[in-house]
Write a structure and sequence with these properties.
Layout: H1 8-18, E1 33-37, E2 40-43, H2 44-55, H3 64-91, H4 97-108, H5 113-122, H6 127-147, H7 156-165, E3 171-172, E4 176-185, H8 203-218, H9 223-230, E5 242-247, H10 248-251, H11 255-261, E6 273-276, E7 283-295, E8 298-299, H12 305-333, E9 337-339, H13 340-349
Length: 351
């Protein structure tokens, strides 16, 4: 079970990636609307901004048909978000300035003002863009919580029924280890990202950096925080280094790591371990691992709190997705939507 860490970095990564989806305050100088929702225009400039962010880094630009499909998908998302914003206004659930500013300050916390402004500039954004997107996200989240999440109830009978139908799924054929890691590489990975923007540039840098990381952990700093600040693994750094549950067989491929990991107790942190390049068999970096939990092989019974929690989360997630889809359809049906771009695509197809 992965830990959920509502930290500033996760908000920032998600928002900076999705920023262009929101109406980012484009001035309606030309009145160039691609759609309307109950009379509220969705401007071409907003759609094109997101389209540019999605395609600018692609080595090959989309075909005419692919470009049209992407524009339609972007426009649909903007329409859905505008519908939810209008619904939130009816329900009195619009995000407050205090809520928005709190989130902005949370995101800014790991950076100096100069660093933060530079990160925004690199993505063609302003702080006002960020505030608008936070306001939209917080608002929609409040609607979902009130209209859907708060009304979901998972009973003990629901959990028991699910367990009975899926008992085999809770029989572990081998032990598994819930691990978190901090990785430092000798060669900078362009995909790696951490809160400090820290990357080792050479083998010597990697050794110094992993020693610094180990010193911080030894002094009592939180493992997840250190991982988010310094780890260079792109798939786990933003989640505090969390790797999820790893079956024992997956660890056996690295005898040295297995020797260390299997001797750890829950909560303990390993010593520094080299990361080997399988092709050259040379050291490619270093890592430190923390054992969050260990589960032995065997059948997990219904009275196990971990089993109940796992089932509860699965059932809640399924119901929330179902109800959310239904809710979007209901509010959409109650809205007057004019999709000019979709109409134009159909019109052009006949030429």
């Amino acid at each position: 079970m992965n830990r959920k860490s509502p930290r500033a970095s996760i908000w920032l990564v998600a928002l900076l990636f999705a920023m262009a989806v929101a109406g980012c305050g484009s001035k309606e100088s030309s009145g160039d609307a691609m759609a309307k929702v109950n009379g509220k225009k969705i401007l071409r400039a907003d759609v094109e901004k997101y389209y540019h962010n999605q395609t600018s880094q692609s080595p090959q630009q989309p075909s005419v048909e692919e470009a049209a499909s992407l524009h339609l998908a972007i426009l649909k998302q903007l329409i859905d978000e505008e519908i939810m914003m209008q619904q939130a206004e009816k329900l009195g659930l619009l995000a407050t300035d205090e809520e928005v500013n709190s989130k902005v300050n949370e995101v800014k916390a790991p950076y100096t003002q100069e660093q933060f402004q530079q990160r925004l500039k690199e993505r063609g954004l302003t702080e006002e863009d960020l505030k608008r997107e936070f306001r939209r996200n917080i608002t929609i989240e409040k609607v979902i919580n009130k209209e859907i999440t708060s009304k979901i109830t998972i009973s003990d009978a629901d959990i028991a029924a699910y367990y009975k139908a899926h008992k085999a799924d809770f029989n572990l054929v081998e032990p598994r280890y819930h691990l978190a890691q901090i990785v430092v590489t000798s060669t900078p990975n362009p995909e790696s990202s951490n809160l400090k923007g820290s990357k080792a540039m050479s083998e010597g840098d990697a050794r110094k950096k992993i020693q610094m990381v180990e010193n911080r952990l030894d002094s009592g700093e939180d493992f997840a925080t250190v991982a988010m600040n310094y780890s260079e693994d792109p798939s786990t750094a933003s989640n505090g280094g969390d790797m999820g549950f790893i079956p024992e067989s997956a660890i056996k491929g690295d005898p040295a790591a297995r020797e260390i990991v299997t001797k750890l107790k829950a909560g303990q942190v390993s010593s520094v371990m080299p990361v080997m390049d399988p092709a050259s068999r040379q050291v490619a970096g270093y890592r430190i691992v923390k054992l969050l939990a260990h589960e032995p092989a065997g059948q997990r019974e219904l009275n196990d709190p971990r089993v109940q929690q796992n089932i509860r989360e699965q059932l809640r997630g399924r119901r929330e997705q179902l109800l959310k889809a239904a809710y979007y359809e209901v509010v959409r049906d109650g809205s007057r939507i004019e999709n000019y771009y979709a109409q134009q695509v159909l019109k052009d197809s006949g030429k």
